[in-house]
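This section describes the prediction task in plain terms. A model, or a person checking by hand, is given the sequence of a single protein chain and must write out its three-dimensional structure as a string of tokens. No templates, partner chains or ligands are provided. The sample shown here is typical of the held-out split.
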Amino acid sequence: PDGSAWQIGLADPREPSRALHTLSVFDQAVATSGGYGTRLDAAGLYTHLINPRTGHTAPAFESVTVVAPSATQADAMSTALALIPRSELSVRLALLRTQPGCRAICIDGLGQVSELS
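The expected answer:
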């Protein structure tokens, strides 16, 4: 409301009530995709994020947050990036670079934070 940037806390996938990272965002949209929220089985092995190529639910990261010019772009990119295997960093970077003004913050299962742009 006062024209300053929003401070957005990114939840720790292992302890969602705790912020693991903070973003400063002004005049942009933010979306997060992660396998830690919605589980489809009692053991917590299957999530709502399903890779259409494999049919498996194995997110590369526990959480992927994308900052983008629009909410639609941020949402689509966060889901796509969450499903690309960790071993395919070059693919993830190439996809992100096709979207001007986008950056991603990835949190793995150990709580390691990495930023991509």
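For orientation: The chain has one domain: 27-116.
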